[in-house]
């Protein structure tokens, strides 16, 4: 670039290596950025060791969470339950299940844990009542099926489970709901029951792990990446020399970073659920965070759904709150695209989208949520979004060239430690 | 199983190895099934060598198809086009594009090829007309952007492309439509333009291939499998000792087969797009078929959409008919679940679903399609479906035990060479 005559006129789309792209000139050498990331990784690892639990807060009596159990433990739990039920029948006490309530009235956000958990309300599900006899039968049948799955140690989907007895279950929502009840009754996660969700996430970058006994090196997964396995209990032996985990909302941004092998310039693990987080990706992210003790930086759209997705990863969805400890990844940082980035990075007006009435309502609702309120920086950003009534997708950065995301925006964000 | 007292009462859900599962007793040793599959593979390889093309049919003048071109060739094609446009302007002929028509009136089903292709109708898109000036400008801009992509040899999504000039494109449907026009103008596939679709397919089994320079062994991809790369031009070096490719409609069935490592018992490659086929999976399947010359057996739901999905893989979707030669996989066999299987395999009544009015209409419409009509076996099955007004998902087989699909149904299908 010494020969100035070769310089072309500024062209935001030229995607060339000239310095005309906005803010490119602010970038320092990669070594500077890397040393800052090393500090972040070290401090995250140090703070990760003191993870709070319900019992630390002396809430374990009043609140309920489930934990991962091996198949043999689930099997024993079901057998013990069967024995106690038989005893109850023989002693004339009858046949009934005690089921923890999963209703929203029984849910509690615990700020210290930054998670939603279940309170201690339970209900009795007796076989001898006309109103509960069906549900009691379904519960018994699901317990029987889960026992078989754990015995053979195979994994099935909720849909498979439903089809084993359509006559009894009638509708998949019925077997699904009882499956969640069974998780709560046995005190174990749904994945411990060997019932798994369809996976749609992918991972690429500086991570080596075992999937069902095969060692996977995610730096050697090309551009497609490795599909995240549906059964987290067969995932193990995680090793990494990454400095952070980059959680990406969308497929297109993931693809850009994978093709550019962003993880080689800044050692990281790139993971995406391609939109709405699925259970398998949430479990996988949590496992990475827990085992590798790396900071998690999130790249989402600048709209209420971007923040909502971040919150599902971070503190769980309401309908699986009993499992929040195992599904959520604490301390996710909001890297971008943040509402304040729109002006800061001079995103052209035509690449911003007006928020719909529904968007604005969702944004305002989020401002009332505990997990947003506890982070003043997020509140500020969300207020700005709702006030400006503008949103933008990650792809809006393509207006400065296709590789602006991987070559300027993200490196600059990392350099400036610009996350909340 | 010698001790008969140990035999439990027949229980379709017991998932045990006893012989009580329907049709299990019909299964011959795997070696018998394997030798039958070897014959199938050999005959497929022999017939694959004589693939017909448009020019074999002397239709190349009247019909139009596009082909895969390397980035350098696309770049040259754009440069030649630019030069010819400049010449036209300088000679006083003005500035206009000649664009092949992609309308359904210009589409033709060629039975010999079993594909939809474009006829030779074109339209003129002059810059000097008020009605086409915008579209001409968009076409020029897209050509400019594609030229950049090919020069740098990077891949982007349609969404990225749209965001490079929102002011001009206004709406993504406009840049998407012109992108298809540009494919037709240059005579190359959309993937040659380095514009790729989001991938969602996965592959597992007896396949080794390179993805962006990394060698991938799909027998070592655990249960999650390998995500199919979005950019087929970086996929190569395919090697396999499989006897067939098993194309699976749904995620859950894929998962069952991956966990049971079905491909080790019957050497095969298992691939799924998790529902509606995406472009990346269609390209990948075709590439496997062409390079490995293996038979493709399809496992889809027994409903009109299952057959429709099969047809998209087999002979293309109407809105990308110009690209049908590169996107379609000829000679896919319909393995199951077929309407006749419902009675043959005694699928319980409660696991069958009634077809809706819309289902029945879709089924009747399919009976009018050329690609169905040319296969009498398919017509017969579809007639049976429409007459019985019953459909069933692959998962309905779970009513005989979770592993019935991988342990009885599929092996028996293969043994009986029961495909159409």
TrEMBL record, chains A, B:
This entry's Gene Ontology molecular function terms read: ATP binding; DNA binding; DNA topoisomerase type II (double strand cut, ATP-hydrolyzing) activity; magnesium ion binding
Top enzyme class, one word, equals isomerase
The record's SUPFAM superfamilies line, in alphabetical order, gives:
DNA topoisomerase IV, alpha subunit
Q: Locate the Spo11/DNA topoisomerase VI subunit A N-terminal domain: which residues?
A: 134-195
Question: Where's it found, cell-wise?
Answer: Nucleus
Any one GO cellular component localisation term in the record: DNA topoisomerase type II (double strand cut, ATP-hydrolyzing) complex
What reaction gets catalysed by this protein?
Answer: ATP-dependent breakage, passage and rejoining of double-stranded DNA
The record's PROSITE patterns line, in alphabetical order, gives: TOPO_IIB (PS52041)
Known InterPro entries for this protein?
Answer: Spo11/TopoVI_A, Spo11/TopoVI_A_N, Spo11/TopoVI_A_sf, Topo_VI_alpha, TopoVI_A, TOPRIM_Topo6A/Spo11, WH-like_DNA-bd_sf
The residues listed in the UniProt record as binding Mg(2+), with positions renumbered to this chain, are: 249, 301
Which Enzyme Commission number(s) are listed? Answer: 5.6.2.2
Q: How does it assemble?
A: Homodimer. Heterotetramer of two TOP6A and two TOP6B subunits.
Q: What does this protein do?
A: Component of the DNA topoisomerase VI involved in chromatin organization and progression of endoreduplication cycles. Relaxes both positive and negative superturns and exhibits a strong decatenase activity.
The family note in this entry says: Belongs to the TOP6A family.
Protein name from the UniProt record: DNA topoisomerase 6 subunit A
């Amino acid at each position: 670039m010494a020969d100035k005559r070769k310089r072309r006129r500024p062209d935001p789309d030229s995607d060339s290596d000239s310095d005309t792209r906005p803010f490119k000139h602010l970038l320092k050498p990669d070594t500077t950025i890397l040393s800052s990331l090393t500090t972040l990784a070290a401090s995250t690892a140090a703070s990760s060791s003191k993870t709070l639990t319900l019992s630390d807060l002396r809430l374990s009596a009043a609140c309920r969470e489930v934990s991962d159990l091996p198949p043999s433990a689930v099997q024993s739990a079901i057998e013990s339950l069967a024995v106690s039920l038989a005893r109850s029948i023989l002693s004339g006490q009858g046949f009934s299940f005690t089921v923890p309530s999963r209703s929203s009235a029984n849910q509690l956000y615990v700020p210290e844990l930054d998670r939603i958990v279940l309170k201690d309300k339970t209900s009795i599900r007796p076989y001898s009542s006309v109103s509960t006899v069906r549900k009691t039968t379904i519960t018994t049948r699901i317990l029987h099926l889960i026992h078989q799955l754990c015995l053979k140690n195979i994994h099935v989907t909720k849909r498979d489970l439903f089809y084993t007895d359509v006559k009894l279950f009638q509708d998949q929502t019925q077997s699904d709901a009882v499956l969640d009840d069974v998780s709560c009754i046995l005190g174990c996660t749904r994945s411990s029951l060997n019932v798994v969700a369809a996976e749609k996430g992918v991972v690429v970058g500086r991570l080596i792990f075992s999937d069902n006994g095969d060692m996977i090196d995610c730096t050697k997964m090309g551009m497609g990446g490795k599909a995240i396995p549906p059964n987290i209990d067969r995932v193990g032996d995680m090793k990494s020399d990454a400095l952070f985990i980059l959680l990406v909302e969308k497929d297109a941004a993931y693809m850009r970073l994978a093709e550019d092998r962003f993880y080689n310039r800044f050692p990281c693990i790139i993971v995406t659920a391609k939109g709405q987080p699925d259970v398998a990706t949430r479990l996988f992210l949590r496992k990475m965070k827990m085992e590798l003790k790396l900071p998690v930086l999130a790249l989402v759209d600048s709209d209420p759904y971007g923040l909502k997705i971040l919150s599902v990863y971070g503190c769980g969805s309401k309908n699986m709150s009993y499992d929040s400890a195992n599904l959520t990844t604490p301390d996710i940082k909001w890297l971008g695209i943040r509402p304040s980035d729109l002006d800061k990075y001079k995103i052209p007006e035509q690449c911003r989208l007006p928020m719909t009435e529904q968007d604005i309502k969702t944004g305002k609702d989020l401002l009332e949520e505990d997990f947003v309120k506890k982070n003043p920086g997020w509140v500020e950003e969300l207020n700005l979004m709702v006030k400006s009534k503008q949103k933008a997708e990650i792809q809006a950065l393509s207006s400065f060239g296709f590789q602006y995301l991987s070559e300027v925006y993200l490196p600059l964000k990392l350099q400036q430690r610009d996350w909340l």
